[in-house]
């Protein structure tokens, strides 16, 4: 597990860093809402298995400095959407919540 966590956290960190750079992202001071849009090639996996990587994903986003931490102090909501498309993967939308 430790090796997988390191690998996938670093991958998420790399993508998050690049996306934040391109968007000229400024880390929010308050809480955020995180929406994960998971895309699978087919509907074989159960939804809980599809979104099982959310821990590594959020850890990578924190490691990239996109959000301060993934604790409840900084993350007010996490929502998931699951869809089917040829190019499997995940899209993450982070929005600052109203105080």
Descriptive report:
It is a single chain. A three-stranded mixed sheet has the order 2-1-3, with no helix packed on it. Helix content is 36%, strand content 27%. The longest helix has 22 residues, at 2-23. Helix 1 packs across helix 3. The chain has helices spanning 2-23, 47-50, 54-63, and strands at residues 32-40, 75-84, 89-96. It contains three helices and three strands. The mean pLDDT is 96. The relative contact order is 0.29. It has 99 residues and is α+β, with helices and mostly antiparallel strands.
Question: Could you outline the blueprint of secondary structure elements for this entry?
Answer:
Layout: H1 2-23, E1 32-40, H2 47-50, H3 54-63, E2 75-84, E3 89-96
Parallel strand pairs: 1-2
Antiparallel strand pairs: 1-3
Helix pairs in contact: 1-3
Task: Give keywords.
single chain; 99 residues; alpha+beta; three-stranded mixed beta sheet; 3 strands; globular
Number of separate helices:
3
| Amount of helix | 25-40%
Rg, nearest Å: 14 Å
> What's the end-to-end separation, in Å?
37 Å
- Describe the oligomeric state of these chains in a short phrase: single chain
Structural class: alpha+beta
Largest sheet entry: 3 strands, mixed
Low-pLDDT stretches are: none
């Amino acid at each position: 597990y430790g090796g997988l966590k390191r690998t996938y956290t670093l991958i998420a960190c790399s993508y998050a860093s690049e996306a934040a750079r391109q968007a000229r992202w400024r880390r929010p001071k308050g809480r955020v809402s995180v929406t994960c849009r998971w895309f699978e090639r087919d509907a074989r996996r159960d939804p809980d298995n599809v979104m099982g990587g959310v821990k590594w994903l959020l850890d990578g986003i924190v490691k990239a400095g996109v959000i301060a931490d993934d604790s409840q102090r900084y993350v007010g909501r996490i929502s998931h959407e699951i869809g089917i498309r040829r190019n499997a993967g995940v899209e993450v939308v982070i929005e600052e919540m109203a105080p």
